[in-house]
Specification:
Layout (H helix, E strand, L loop, with lengths): L1 H23 L8 E3 L6 H8 L6 H9 L1 E5 L3 H5 L20 H10 L4 E7 L28 H12 L2 E6 L4 H5 L12 E5 L14 E5 L1 H15 L6 E3 L15 H11 L4 E3 L4 E3 L14 E4 L20 H4 L4 E4 L1 E7 L17 H12 L3 E6 L10 H18 L11 H4 L7 E2 L6 E19 L1 H4 L3 E10 L2 E8 L6 E20 L4 E8 L8 E5 L4 E6 L11 H7 L4 E5 L16 E2 L3 E9 L2 E2 L3 E5 L7 E5 L20 E2 L7 E19 L9 E9 L5 E8 L10 E21 L7 E2 L1 E5 L1
Parallel strand pairs: 2-3, 2-13, 3-4, 4-7, 7-8, 9-12, 12-13
Antiparallel strand pairs: 1-11, 5-6, 10-11, 14-19, 15-18, 15-19, 16-17, 16-18, 20-21, 21-23, 22-24, 24-25, 24-26, 27-29, 28-33, 29-32, 29-34, 30-31, 30-32
The structure holds beta-L-fucopyranose (FUL).
């Protein structure tokens, strides 16, 4: 009853807003997609962009803000990033499962939804599917009766979390096994979904008829199970990554979508028209993340959605090239651990609370949603380090954003009531809003939300001023706002604040503003080591590969702090030596923290390999242009060796200067393009640098989307001075190898 009344009120609101927009402009109504017509002027195109709005589902997905990803499956046990589809189901050796512990922790972190990889690229299913035996039903877990999604769905109900499913379109089991359906060249015929399986009726009696082939039918049958037997599903995640394809397999997305819209009417679809990948897996965010995206074709009829990875997706220049303008929000997905799957608690790094909180502020406060992956361990639980980080992040979000320091302030009341549905539409020519408090408040965060549901995202540049010593002083500025912008700046105390809109696509409607204080933390740290082994420790500036971020936060972090370090892997604290200048580190585990008063910053921890000063290249298969083989061992990750395009087998052979007992090696791919990623290869050694024998083979998955340093541990240590790295498979079927850096560890 209460809900109905609320819906009615929202309906009235909608009509009032629509009337308002209508009165302003006779033709322009807010819509999810707006077509550009021939002859539309540049101004009309921008006006159209200012009227593109999220759907109800997109808006509620945006309001989730912070959501969880769970990567779990055979890879959890094989320690691989990508499986190969030929795993025996028994490798999934699960004895216990505690989804309550997952949900309790996610709830404490302030998350609103959890998305489980019910089937990753290896094709192994985590639920009791009627349509395959390649999954949990063929393991010993609960005598083959276990169902991870069933447990998770029940835990979600208990803890008040929404549920989403990741169902990989790529399916290596269906590619590799002789009866596999993927790319089996079967005919497209009319098929009823779900296919009847005697003895396993569905409670939901809806049926569909689609003209599809075997793999699409399989996929649709599985979607039917997922969307009808586990409670409401709020996000369906379609990964664009494909370790392999076969038989020209196409996907009938129109059928998938029809099924999802009918059976999960509240769900958004990731990887298609509702939600887009932010473009990297490292937690990088754009300074300007527009969610109104230009398309050449009508997105509601598109089958394939390209990955949008460029820095500028939605500026005016881009919009002017469009045929359609469509609301498609960014989701910032990254993992709390190195890699998407759990490997171990010794070597696999876990992000600190400072790091996760920083990504939270940049992504949620940068017009996107933060999807953070927490991979359960082999005991079916989150490990202690992950839980610690999530608890700390949840506490920080609550302490910082749980209350609005502008509460009770004077200013446009619709922006101060904390209710995004009420808003202040700026008048023609008006470009500022002023807020004043009874007493000065100390703040370092300011949050702005536009009323995007009916007025779209409009602000292009804005600034925040405070009243100080009898005048206005600008303390922060940024570009767009959209769903939410969090401005971060050094601590400031004032009783008057002025938000100025410096450029806008149409009169902006401000839904909420709020002011906050986040206790200043010592900076996160990063190491860099040169070819002579000289290590410097610096405040983290560029946490990811493709663009610097957080100049504003850096300023904020420039408080009085000292960096302490240890070189032997022992615990680092205020009693550890103080870092004042770069030093030579031979090999080993360096740990460092910045400490400011009682505040101990996040620990940086790095294991360094053998110093490269005396290494020499013996030979390399080839090199192109200025990318000589020496660049693979120059300790400069920005430079790289690139071979000619002669095939997947490429090599680089080195003389390490003396013999070492090697335990592992690491490969850093280049970041400039996705060309030349070393997916598989072998390590060879030699006594004379001429005749080689194979000592180890290695495999790194998902390098194109996640071009981070990968480490391979050898089964046993071996002693050598001459070593050769030889690729056998290059990601994406490539023919040229690139290596930004190679490291070897004792
Ligand atoms: C990628 C996949 O290949 C990874 O394994 C992971 O699932 C990530 C979320 O998407 O593209």
């Amino acid at each position: 009853m209460i809900k109905q009344k609320r819906n009615f009120l929202i309906g009235c609101f909608n009509m009032a807003f629509l009337f308002c927009v209508h009165a302003q402009n006779n033709t322009m109504l807010p819509q999810n997609t707006i077509r550009i017509d021939e002859g539309d002027s540049k101004e009309t195109i921008i006006e159209k962009a200012a009227h593109v709005v999220p759907s109800i589902n997109q808006l509620s997905a945006l309001r989730n803000e912070f959501i969880a990803f769970i990567h779990f499956g055979p890879n959890t046990f094989t320690r691989m990033e990508w499986g190969n589809g030929m795993e025996d189901p028994s490798v999934f050796d699960l004895k216990e499962l505690d989804t309550d512990q997952w949900c309790r922790t996610l709830k404490a972190a302030g998350m609103k939804m959890v998305i489980l990889t019910v089937k990753h690229h290896d094709g192994f299913v985590l639920w009791q599917s009627r349509y395959t035996n390649h999954g949990i039903m063929s393991t010993d877990f609960r005598d083959g009766q276990g169902d991870v999604l069933r447990d998770l769905s029940a835990s979600c109900q208990r803890y008040g979390l929404k549920l989403g499913v990741y169902l990989s379109p790529a399916d290596l089991y269906q590619i590799e096994n002789p009866e596999g359906l993927y790319g089996n060249l079967s005919n497209y015929t009319k098929r009823v979904i779900p296919r009847d399986v005697p003895g396993s009726p569905f409670a939901n009696k809806t049926t569909f008829e689609f003209e599809v082939d075997d793999y699409n039918e399989y996929f649709l049958n599985q979607l039917f199970e997922l969307l009808t037997e586990y409670g409401p599903i709020h996000e369906v995640w379609f990964d664009g990554a494909h370790p392999k394809t076969k038989g020209g397999q196409r996907y009938n997305y129109a059928a998938w979508k029809a099924l999802i819209r009918t059976l999960a009417p509240e769900a958004v679809i990731f990887g298609k028209e509702d939600v887009r990948w932010c473009g990297n897996e490292a937690g990088g965010t754009r300074d300007t993340e527009w969610n109104v995206i230009p398309y050449q074709d009508d997105p509601s009829n598109m089958n394939n959605f390209p990955d949008l990875t460029k820095e500028d997706l939605g500026s005016r220049d881009k919009l002017w090239e469009a045929n359609y303008l469509h609301y498609q929000q960014a989701e910032t997905n990254t993992s709390i651990r190195e890699g998407w799957f759990y490997r171990d608690d010794t070597y696999q790094k876990v992000r600190s609370a400072d790091d996760v909180f920083d990504i939270y502020e940049r992504s949620v406060g940068g017009n996107s949603t933060f999807l953070l992956n927490i991979p359960p361990n082999r005991d079916g639980r989150f490990s202690a380090a992950d839980v610690r980080t999530l608890h700390e992040v949840g506490a920080r979000i609550e302490a910082t954003y749980g209350q609005n320091l502008l509460k009770g302030a004077k200013g446009p009341k619709e922006t101060l009531d904390g209710e995004p549905e009420t808003y202040t539409l700026l008048k023609e020519g008006q470009n500022e809003l002023v807020f004043s408090t009874a007493k000065p408040i100390n703040i370092n965060r300011f949050v702005i939300q536009e009323a995007i549901r009916v007025h779209g995202e409009r602000i292009e540049i804005h600034a925040l001023d405070v009243w100080s010593n009898g005048g206005w002083k600008e303390i922060a500025s940024a570009t767009n706002v959209g769903y939410k912008r969090i401005l971060r700046f050094p601590d400031v105390s004032s009783d008057r604040f002025r938000l100025r809109i410096l450029s806008s696509r149409a009169r902006p409607a401000i839904g909420t503003v709020s002011a906050h204080y986040a206790p200043t933390r010592p900076p996160q740290l990063a190491f860099r080591r040169n070819v002579d082994g000289m290590v410097s420790i610096e405040p983290l500036k560029d946490g990811f590969s493709w663009k610097p971020h957080g100049e504003d936060i850096l300023e904020n972090l420039h408080v009085n702090y000292q960096i302490h370090y240890t070189l032997d892997g022992s615990e680092v604290n205020a009693r550890s030596p103080i870092y004042d200048k770069p030093m030579v580190v031979k090999t080993g585990n360096v740990r460092a923290v910045a400490i400011s008063g009682d505040h101990v910053g996040a620990e940086a921890n790095e294991v360094f390999g053998i110093i490269k000063k005396d290494w020499k290249i013996l030979a390399a298969s080839s090199a192109i242009g200025s990318h000589g083989a020496a660049m693979a061992i120059d300790a400069v990750p920005e430079s790289f060796w690139q071979s000619d395009e002669t095939g997947p087998v490429q090599f680089i052979a080195m003389d390490l200067g003396e013999s070492y007992a090697l335990s592992s090696f690491s490969y850093t791919p280049q970041h400039k393009t996705d060309k030349g990623m070393m997916e598989k290869g072998v390590i060879k050694i030699s006594e004379d640098g001429k005749r080689w024998r194979t000592m180890a083979s290695f495999e790194f998955g998902n390098l194109i989307n996640d071009p981070t340093t990968r480490t391979h541990r050898f089964k046993e240590k071996f002693i050598t001075r001459y070593i050769r790295v030889e690729s056998t498979v290059i990601a994406g079927g490539g023919n040229s190898l690139s290596i930004a850096e190679l490291d070897f560890f004792e």
